[in-house]
Every structure is written in structure tokens, then in C-alpha cells.
Amino acid sequence: MKLLSNYLKEMKIAARGFYFYIEIAMAVILLGILLFVVSETSTSNSKQFIYNDMPQKIAEYLKDKSIEDGDARLANSTEFELKPAEFVITNQETGETTAYDFDDEKIIELETIEMLDSSTGERDETVYYVETEEDMIRLAYSEREVGTTVAMDARGKVSTKYYLQGYETDRLESLLYISHSKSPAVINAKKDRQVVRTLGVMETLNNRENLVPIFLVYLGSLMGYFIVMAYIFYDKAEGVIRAFAVTPSSMWKYLVSKIFVILTTVVVSSSIITIPVMGGQPNYLLFYIFLIITTFALASLGLLVASFFDSISKAFGVMYAIMISLMIPAFSYYIPSFDPLWLRFFPSYPLLQGFKEILLNGDTGYVLTYSFVFLAGGLVLFVLADMRFKKTLTV
Amino acid sequence: MIKKIFLILKRDFLSSRRDAMAVYIMVIPLILAVGITLFAPGLNDTTVKLAMLKSDDVEHIEYMEQFSKVELFNSVDELERRVEKRDDIAAIAPTGNSYEIILQGNESEIVEEYAVQLNTLYELGSTKEETTAQLISFGRTVPPLKAMLVNMLIAMTIMLAGMLIAMSIVEEKVENTINALNVTPISQTGFVIGKSLLGGTVAMLGIIGAVIITGFYDINWFMIVLVGLTSMILSLVIGFLQGISSADVIEAAGGVKLIMLPLAGSIAVYELLADKWQWTMYWSPFYWAYKANNLILSKTADWGTVLLCTAMVIGLSLIVYLVSLPKLRKGLS
Fold first, then answer.
1. Do A32 and A95 sit in the same domain of this protein?
2. How far apart are alpha carbons A15 and A29 in whole angstroms?
3. Model confidence at A297, in pLDDT bands (50, 70, 90)?
4. Confidence class for position B45, pLDDT limits 50, 70, 90
5. Domain residue ranges of chain B, discontinuous segments joined by +
6. What distance in Å separates the CA atoms of residue B270 and residue B258, rounded to the nearest whole number?
7. ipTM of this model?
8. Residue A383: inside a domain, yes or no?
9. Minimal Cβ distance to A197: which of B102, B116, B121
10. What is the pTM of this model?
11. Do A231 and B265 touch (CB under 8 A)?
12. For chain A, what is the domain count?
């Protein structure tokens, strides 16, 4: 009963302040961004500048063919401003260098086509056709994108020159070399005969849905860690914790009531974001279990950290360092081929992957395993925080 | 007046030294800069990974290692278990006289394309020696991803400076020292400048240190300092508004979250959206600061663009400041 009355009291206090409403407003804004700004399919912003050193008719034929085959679509022509520039280029094989020094400024309009992703039909790369090789090199340099000269000799033999920035990996450079070791027709014929075996039919999140786990983790669970600390420091400044020592209520009930306020806020704001975007797709029972357990664990971590300091200013370094380190796994989430072992030890890694599995209706075992891990870890942290607060009361 | 401003700076410095907050704001960007320096090479080399059998031809394994990161396993079962793990990896396993590519089914399209392309080229016996391609380099060494991380770090440092000011004002309010200041000869403007100097100075030092640690020595330092100083105005406006409008630390913390939205939005729009959508963030001073820093770090900045960006940061920050001036005055009274 005391726990319930504590919780209701805390909720009344929270409802009087702005913070609770900031959370709700933030969730509504994010939902608006997801629904109206982020598209379901992803488009690429990568660009390539191409100079065709071949008869005009052949260049036109190749372009038209890729459009007819559905590999590309014509876009509006694009204007580029060429500014004065001075740079040196080096041929990787021969080591030969060429210096360029452009003093003039000019605006050029380039024919533009969009190369399309074969599975989604969305833009994969934007290709700009440049009329002179010099302008192409200048654009590749100033726009920091790949420039290409495709040349065809009198016998119809095609050769390619890539203008790279210099920071590309050796592996990528090697791939560019061997990709031009046989004729495209021979490579394509062989490619069509490759056997690809897929282990299962796997669901994937679309571009919009893929952002939901990020919002849930970084604006939900992790904010629980941050905000519970703010609540505790506020109460410390007001002397509430000291006053608690002379009431019949136990410390753990006070701490749980704080966590319940955070849980209420996180559950409401996470629901505002998730339900309209994901609809009936996820297993919501599992979703709320995972959300509540992980928020509890991180809020307990916040309580423990808060127990060592008497103001938010003093706790700032530890609080901020933990928050930043928990953000690092987002890189792996967005770049799945970047997945070093050490990254998996950050708590936010299973958090992101767990929410992703729930939204996909995927690996329930993974979610339940980590729910258990977070619950156990959260309980340990909570007990430690309770012991710290009981021991120090005012600290 | 100047003396009084420096007295406030001194007082803030002494009080922030007690809880080491100013040190954190200066040191955290430096630690993160070391992290970026260690972390960026791995992040840049995101070549597709392949799983192969240890019993496969040594020549085949070596061939694939030229183009991808290869992991070796004892059996096809182990290969499949590896493919089923969370990250993107394709397996290439022998079947009869040929090879098959094994995928989990949820990899990005590029993983399948890359694995198919490599296996095709291997089966065709393609070598680098017979290539018709030439590679020409502009000689740049800093990948755009590293520049982006450093730029994000600068944006976060600006936010931190704002937080420092906000928290310090909230604490002044809680301890009622703002009221006490109203009966001293210091003017409100003097108080604002005095409070701003500490946050601004430590953040500026943090930014310069972070840029040096991450290896951007040969950038235009006049430009980066100019953008840094104008960004300080931005952090001061944020800090003061947050501090004055928050009754306690909980609201100040919530305010930080709200400010993160235009910051993250500006970065997302600049990095992810096409040129035709860039205008959607022109209202955000963070956008202009991020753009200017990006051009400077990538060494493609010209003075015209940098001055335009800094003018936009100052202009937008001043508009926000002037609009909220009555509220600020009221809060300080």
C-alpha cells in the first residue's frame, strides 16, 4: 500500500512539472518525423562523375539501354559550380603525378541518371555525365566522390580509369582491379550461374521501422538512467531523502516509486512511437516485458551512480561517460558488417538487437535470455543502490 | 564592468573546480577524440566478411583474403551457424566441383552481390595483373567517416558547454544566489557574459584539443576557431534559455533532450538527405555550424561559405536570444 501511495504521490508531482509533458511531446515529434519525414525505403546519396571517352552514339546507346532494362532512370539535369582548385593526382601503378591548377569559376549543367536498386527500385547511386575529362576530375576532387573515365578504343576495347580520394581500403582497390579483368559479358554470364543458398526466409525491418529500436533505446531506456538521477538529485537538494529516514517507509519503496515514475513515462512515450509505426506486427507482450525490464535495469544503474554523488554537477562526468559509451553500439546496428566482439559487451548492444528481434517477431529466445540477464543485473544494481542509500542517506 | 565580469568567471571557475564539471567538459571531448582515433579505422574498413572452410584450397582462401575479411571454420555446420549470427557475413562452401554461397536471408543486398562477384571472379581465374582498370588517387588520407565523427564531437561539446551553463544557472536559482546578485553592482548583461565565459572557454579548449588529437593538423585553424567562437554564442544562448526556463535539474535534463532534436536533425539532414531537401534545416543554427565544420575538416571550405555559415549561426542565435530576452530578464530578476 505504501509503495502504491508513494508511486501515486510521485506521479502527481511528476504531472505538476514540465518533464513528463516534455517526454510526451518529444515522443509525438519523433512519431511525426518517422511517419512524415523518413521514407520506408532507403535511398543512397552516393554520386559518381563519369566521362565517356567514346563515340557519342555508343555512349548514348549504353545509357539508353540501362534505362530500358530498368537499371536506371533519367533525372533532371543538375547544376554544379566549379571553383578554383589546385591539386595533384597520382597513378597508383606507375606513381606518375599530374598537377592541376584551376583559376576559373564556372557553372556547368550535367545530364543525370539514377541507378536503381534491383530489389527495391529505389535510387542506389546518382551518376552525372561530364563532357570533359578535366571537369570530371575537378568535380571528383571538389565533391569528394568517385570519378570515372570510360574509354573505348578503335577496336572496341573498353578501359576504365577510377579517380579515388585516397582513403579507400586496399581491399576495395583490389576489387576494382579484378572487376575489370574480364569482359562484363563473361563476368555476367558466370555470375548468373552462381548458386546461392539461403538458410531461411528472414523478415527485415524497412528504413522507417529500423529507426524504432534506436529511439526506444536511446530516448527510452537510456533516458531512464539519466532522468532517475535527475529525480534523485532533485530530492537530495530538497532534503527529501533525509526526511525519508525518519518515516516508517523503507528506502527501497522510495527508490522503486522513483523507478515506477520512469517506467510509466517510458512505457507511454515508447508506445506513442512504436504502435503507430509497427501496427500489429510485434509481439507486444514481449515488447513490454523487455522494455520494462531494461528500463528497470538502467534506472537501477542510475540510482547506484546517483548514490555516490550529492549533485548532478558532481555526477556529471560518470553520468556522461556511461551515456556516451552506451551510444557506441549504434554504429554496429547501422553497419552490420562492423561487429567487433568487444562491442557486444556494451549493454546497449543486446538492447538494440533485442528490440529489433521483437519488432521482427524474430528470435524470442534471444529476447528472453537478455530479459533475464537485465532483470538479474537490474536487481543486483538495485540492491546495491538500496544499500548505498540506506548507509549514507544524505549522500 | 570588465573586472566584475572576470570576478564572476573566477567565482564560476572556483565553484566548478569543486565538482570538476568544467574539467569534465574539457576532458570528455579529448577522451572521445582518442576513442575516435582508435575506432575510425575499423569503422572505415567495413568490407564484406566471408566465412570459409579451413579445409578449402589455400589458394582460394588467399584469393578471397585480398578482397574481404575471411573467417575460417571446420565444417559446413559451423559455417551455417556463423552465418546465422547477428552480423552480415556470407559463407562460401565447396559443393562438388564448384562453390555455393550461403546466406542467412536478411543481409543487405551488397553482401550477396559482393560474395557472388568474388566467387565469379575466382572461378573465372581473374587476376589483378590482367585488369584494364587504372586507379588514380587524389592523395587524401582522412576518411569522411572520421571527419563526420569529429564534427559530431564538436557539436556535442557545444551542447555540453550549454549544459554547463544551464546547470550552473539552475543551481544559482535553487540556492537563490541570482536574487543576491540583483543587489550587487553587477548588471544583468555583466552576469550573462561572466557566466558564459567559463562554458565558452572550456568548450573551445576541448574542441581544439579534440581536433588536434584526431590528427586534423593541416586544416584552416582561423576558420575552425571562427566557427568555434560563433558556435559558443549558440551554446550560450541554449544554456541561458535552458537554465532560466528550468525550475529544477529534472526540467533542465528534459530540456537537454529537446535540444538534442534539432542537433540530431541537423546532422541527419546534412548527411543523409539529398541537396534538394537541405533547406528543411536552414532554420537550425546547428545545421550551419555542422556544415561549416564539415567543410573545414574536409579541407574544401572557402572563406565565402564559412562566413555565410557563421553569419547564419550568429544571426539565428541572436534572433532566439532577442525573442527570449524578456523571459531571460524576468528569469534573472
1. no
2. 20
3. very high
4. low
5. 2-40+142-332, 47-130
6. 19
7. 0.74
8. yes
9. B102
10. 0.77
11. no
12. 2
